[in-house]
Please model this.
Amino acid sequence: MTNGHGPWRNDPPRQSGPNTRILIWFFIVAAIGLGTWKLSETFPGTIVSDLDRANLYYMLAIVAAVLSGVVLSRHVRLGQVIRDLATWAAVIAVLLIGYSFRTEVGDVGQRVLSNLIPGEPVSMGANEIAFSRAADGHFYAFGEANGTRIRFLIDTGATDTVISPSDAARIGIDTKDLRFTRPYGTANGQTLGAPYMLALLTIGPIEVADMPVSVNQAAMDTSLLGMSFLSRLASFEVRGDRMFLRRK
Model:
């Protein structure tokens, strides 16, 4: 007879307790949230509208729900979960790189960054930059106005380059000293703008000194890069899902 404690006893595999799994879930979600916050801080202007924030919260909620189902499950081993997460991360990275190279071979880091963050300029040579089309169908461009990084919507139908009130405040423009005398017609009705002269406006390697702009009186989701800037280029064109700007 055996009392079940002999050398051939098969002990069941140890599983992590619920408290350990909750802590792991919390730290993963916190890391994702912190990473998202740092990205939005590094690339200001990426999340500007209520729709952007709603989409972000929706995606974070889905990620948290999926992680809770995987990490907190009593029938799933954490070691296997970590290996699966690493595998999926590698697959997603490969897919992103493959998507970035769908048109032509370019710099890996810049191309991936441009697709992940539409509006980030990709250098195509000494005098040319390119942008990827955003999910909403528009083209955006990250640039610097008087040394402050802001995001522009490229609008070939706009005569002026227009700075939003929130971007004006970040640049250091005191709107109380401006005279809003320029009328503009928008989809939301009439609004007024105030003329202002930027010391320097740069988009990638393209620099324009003493750039006249208009500071909008009403709130805007993003600033506009209009023909007052684009007309100073040698050319600009759209090919497929990419826009190209060429300096003189």
In short: The chain has a mean pLDDT of 77. Residues 69 and 161 are 48 Å apart (CA to CA). Residues 18-100 form one domain. The longest strand covers residues 189-203.
